[in-house]
Amino acid sequence: MDKKLRILVAKPGLDGHDRGAKVVARALRDAGFEVIYTGLHQTPDMIVATAIQEDVNAVGLSILSGAHMTIFPNVMKLLKKKKAVDILLFGGGIIPDEDKKALYKLGVGKLFGPGTDTAEIVAYLKKYFKL
Amino acid sequence: MTLIENNDHKAKSILNTLYPRTGNAWRIGITGPPGAGKSTLVEKLAMECVKHNLSVGIVCIDPTSPFSGGAILGDRVRMSSLFLDPKVFIRSMATRGSLGGIAKATKQMCDLLDAFKKDIIIIETIGVGQVELDVAGIAFTTIVVLVPEAGDSIQTMKAGLMEIADIFVVNKSDRDGADKMVMEIQSILEMKDFDRIPVVLKTIGTEGKGVTDLYKSILEHKDYLKVTNKIKQRMQSTIQTEITEIVQEHIDKQVWRNPKIKLALNRFIDNIINGRQTPYHAADKIYAIWKKLGRKI
Ligand SMILES: Nc1nc2c(ncn2[C@@H]2O[C@H](COP(=O)(O)OP(=O)(O)OP(=O)(O)O)[C@@H](O)[C@H]2O)c(=O)[nH]1
Ligand SMILES: [Mg+2]
Question: For chain A, which domains are there?
Answer without folding.
Answer: 6-128 (3.40.50.280)
